[in-house]
From TrEMBL, chain A:
InterPro entries assigned to the protein according to its UniProt record, in alphabetical order: BP-dep_ABC_trans_perm, MetI-like, MetI-like_sf
Gene3D superfamilies hit by this protein: MetI-like (1.10.3720.10)
Domain ABC transmembrane type-1 span(s) in chain numbering: 75-265
Protein name per UniProt: Maltose/maltodextrin ABC transporter, permease protein MalG
Protein origin, superkingdom: Bacteria
GO process terms (BP): transmembrane transport
Family: Belongs to the binding-protein-dependent transport system permease family.
PROSITE patterns in alphabetical order: ABC_TM1
Topology in membrane: Multi-pass membrane protein
Keyword Iron-sulfur among record annotations: no
GO CC annotation terms, alphabetical: plasma membrane
Keywords: Cell membrane, Membrane, Transmembrane, Transmembrane helix, Transport
Entry's localization field: Cell membrane
Amino acid sequence: MTTSVRNQFGSVILRGLLWVWIALTLVPLVWMFTTSVKPEGMAQTIPPTWIFPPTLDHYRGVLEGESVSAFAPLLLHSAVVALGSTALALVLGLMAAYALARVRFAGKQKLAMWILSTLMFPPVVSVVPVFIMAGRLDIIDRYPTLIVPYAAFNLPIVIWTLRSSIRQVPEEIEDAALIDGASRFEIIWRIILPLSAPGIATAGILSMLLAWNEFLFALTLTRSEVKTAPIGINEFTGMFGTQWGSLTAAATTIVLPVVLMALLLRRHLIEGLTLGAVK
Amino acid sequence: MANTLSTAGAARRAAPATGAPASTRARRDTNNRLGWALVTPAVAVLLALTIFPAAYLLYASFRRFNLMQPEAAQFVGLDNYRNIVANADLRHSLWVTILFVVVAVAIEFALGLGLALLLAKQSRANTIASTILILPLAVTPVVSALIWRELFNPNFGWVNYYLRRVGIMEEPIAWLSQPGTAWFALISLDVWQWTPFVALILMAGLQGIPPEPKEAAAVDGAQGWRLFWDVVFPMLRPFAAIAILLRTLEAFKTFGTIRVLTGGGPGISTEIINLTIYRTALQDFSVGAAAALGISFLVFLSIVVPQMLRVLARNSDLVEG
């Protein structure tokens, strides 16, 4: 009897701690959002101001501003880089994943492990040579200089996720198409692509997230033409002695698209977290 | 996630592999050509961003090479490596890197496992909770670091204000100005952002565990911790292994958050090796010295990571063909 009372008491405490953690998870985001809609001068009051007339002025300033703080172009650069690198990673990744899932060729097993092992490669080790080479080739501050490295970082994730979802497509369908005279590319395009759509969605989300949020390569390889949003927001603090209203408004515009995407496609995202390595 | 933890692997192993009737050499050659043709573009991109830079760095690590005077570069043998061994600051940076990764991943795993166990039972409340848990995963790390900087601001930060308000501390703390508290801020940021990653993977694992073994063990009298360690955890092990592996790999790549939150400071107390390499190469322009550090870091990772992969492979069907 006493054990069960103690167990119940324990589980109430644990549930309580769970909700404390969930609440703490929200605090930083609540701070960001409330600060972004607080009128000028209320951002840094102590004690914090909780009752205030909300304003969209900071968003207007950040999105429409002509000044250095203009943020819309940076969001556009980020979008181009994220979409471009995701598309590239998906195309190259789908081809490789198909081969690794379905074609029996020499060295396949070792190759798959090597591809996975590139995940451990620290970006800071590749950024220095890439910076030097890009400088010599005069391609700093151009889209491909970010798109290709981001695609490379995402390839192991994309390939492993897609390989596992291609394996779940019944082979009989493919065999039937082969007998009907379809080429391998037709098979990938007409059969594998539509049937592994959930895996492609998963791989796509993961690689969009990484590219949209990346900092190191963007910091090193962009100046102004393709400067991405995470670099721009970091400069807010230095240049104007930190206007927290504008900074948090800009932060919200960076975070909102990816957070919404993650929430809408949460099932795919969670499945992708294990790279399809465990099912 | 499908609950086919063991069965899917077994079924797939039992099924004949594609192209298995490669009875003729011609057929095998066609497959080899097709396979390599399909993987070549991806492999080329990967080589360009891993092996090529590593080879270049290896070359640069034997030279004294200042980015501002590339023409004055000269061969110096192992000097750059000797300097790593001799320089206490560089040893410190390697050491704090390992410390950061181990502490952060350990805390994230412990908390993530707790969260997963509490959230595994499906209910409306748990769905809401796990939806909220997804949020930090998507937040741009630089943005979370900026948020942290302001939350831990000694004068206007919520942390100082509310901790004093609830009576946990008396005096305001200048969190980012002392090594100990700066580390606390950094680790708390990493834990906030990535504990959900571990929790969601483990949750998927828990939800895939069939109820029968648990029920059978319960009938045999297993309870609480015994039930967990002897019955549940063994089935969770592949998920635990991949969560720890992926989190460790990512933690070793941490750059933006630390650069924005502490900049490696105060002093060099939070300067993990990624920041040191970046500063040495792109702010001090000593490419040779940075290259030697980078190569040492790579060697370290390529000793540690394959060990982890081996453990992972033993615990999942990761390497199954």
